[in-house]
Amino acid sequence: MAERYRDAVFSLVVVVLCAVLLFLPTGFEERISSGVQHARGLVLETDNSGVRQHGIVRTGTQDIRVRILNGSWKGTMVEAENLLTGKLELDSFYAPGQKVLLNMESRGEELTAVRAVGVYRLGVELRLFLLFGVVLVLFGGITGLKALLSFVFTVLLLWKAMIPLFLKGYDPILVSLGLLTVLTGCIIFLVGGCRKRGVVAFWGAFLGLLLTCALAFLFSRPFGLHGAVRPFAETLLYSGFAHLDLTRLFLAGVFFASSGAVMDLAMDIASSMDEVAHHGRDISRWQLFRSGLSVGRAVIGTMTTTLILAYSGGYLTMLMLFMGQGIPVTNILNLNYVAAEMLHTLVGSFGLVTVAPFTALVGAFLLAKPLEKPVWSEKKEKSPEVVL
Length: 388
Description:
61% of the residues lie in helices and 14% in strands. By secondary structure, it is an alpha+beta fold. Strands 1, 2, 3, 4, 5 and 6 form a six-stranded antiparallel sheet that branches. Strand 3 and strand 4 form a beta hairpin. It is globular. Residues 372-383 have low confidence and may be disordered.
């Protein structure tokens, strides 16, 4: 009963933190263009006469006729521009019948400029998130609801705290460590409960993250890497943030990206050790430590493979290009962005491997119960009274 009360209070605290983060200003609100409104639009006609085709790349301007579907100008027919930059990963090319997101500028009650900024995806994104939440709660019950709460808290903490602090020039490594400590504690104690099992998982994950951070910092210099290898890093410098240290941002991202897998493994081992200690009340600390290591060995193999697949999944087209162009493997492994992913994967995997012994060691001391002295031995030790 006391454990349920603590869990309920802690969940309420996280809900309050989510509310605070939701209304917390980032300090960059003034950069949002004032006077710009957003609306959904339905493409009725397209004019491609201003589009220049260069092979598979399009540049120029696509003019589209759109009917506004919501907002103050609902039902209004307008002409909108679709600027094409020649980058397939950034441009959209519209066809009649598609719904688009519109940026609209007005003067009084007159629209002065309308621009299409992409296919409208907010509705389907919201439906997908709601479906994810419903399935998570139906399958996990109260635990699933807490997991959904931890998901929301993570998104808000990243967007409202971590990213603004990075942009303001605070040390990325210290900020990441501090926020990851808070995030790890909230997620683990929400899902695992405010009990010894959660304490064991927290300390195992925290020690693993510390080691991962130290390894990323140690090997970044021999690798000769800098943060410009990340997408949009150079653009960030040219956007008024030349004071940022891209290398420390890159290092913070290395151990930040592996934190989820680290927490997962720590919770798996802590939960298994808690069950072993609960059903084997006379188990020694050494035996419980060995049990934790056994569970860790079984999970580590698949977890490290998970990291490799997760990190390499976004670079399949790059690898295909290298093979198709006949670039030697030696050259490939020596490229900046490939070496960055190798550092990312290997340091994260090393952190995963060390989480197992860290968690097993903490669990052996916190979860193993000291053996009680048998009652018969106490009676045997008492000297018999002598009646004279």
